[in-house]
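I am still getting used to backbone structure tokens and would like to learn alongside you. Label the sequence line and the structure token line clearly, so we can match residues to local backbone shapes. Go ahead whenever you are ready, and we will take it from there:
>
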Amino acid sequence: MTKKLSLILALIFGLFFLSNFSHAANTWPAGTGTDIGGNLPPDPIVYEPSGLAWHSRLGTLFIVGDSGNISEITSDGSLLHNWYNGSFLDLEGIAVANPASNYVYVGEEGNRTIYEFDITSWTLSGKSWDLSAWMPDVPGQGLEALTFVPNGDHPYTNSSSGGLFYAGHQGDGKIYVFDINLSLSGSVNYISTITPLAGTTDLSGLDYEPSTQILYAIFDSSDLLLEMNASGTVLNSYDMPGSAQEGVAVQSNKLSKHNY
């Protein structure tokens, strides 16, 4: 952890798969972190956090659980909102595309689909984007991570929606890049596929920090955190503390070049 960044990891337990990890990583340069999940509400069984994103305008964390929860908490863990829908049993990723808007975007694993969620009414907006034509259908190992990279930071053609979605696949360990028209439900253009580390699977979390232009990826079975640029070039790697890590969110004290 550098002086410029505070990193929040969601350490959670579940059923995962071994990878072929062989990349030498640096020792984690900070402590093991503080558990701030004690106030998360139980769903009918147990709340299992599966992805999180820092909302820079609100100064809060948004979390999804794989039994159908979307929650908002403060940085010390106080619960502000919770939404539950038992028909969404596989929410694994969440991204903030534009912090000035009233929406966040959640990724459902099995259907490999992104849904728009309204954080003012705390309901689904009705818009969704199916990515299953490009992301492989691997039962229990589908869309596991989601983040958004603004125009000007990624190496691809600019999107009319202000940036591109990066969706991580657990089964093959790859990142799929999409241009999604946020004004039109179902309108998706596939852009590219990034392979962070060949042969390394179990990609479980993604986060992009615009102020430092670093893309973070975590690999659960390897207890590995990668720092990359938006092209997928690995800049640094760390052995993470704990086990079964499924989400990563970065809060920076640097000013972003992006104005929303």
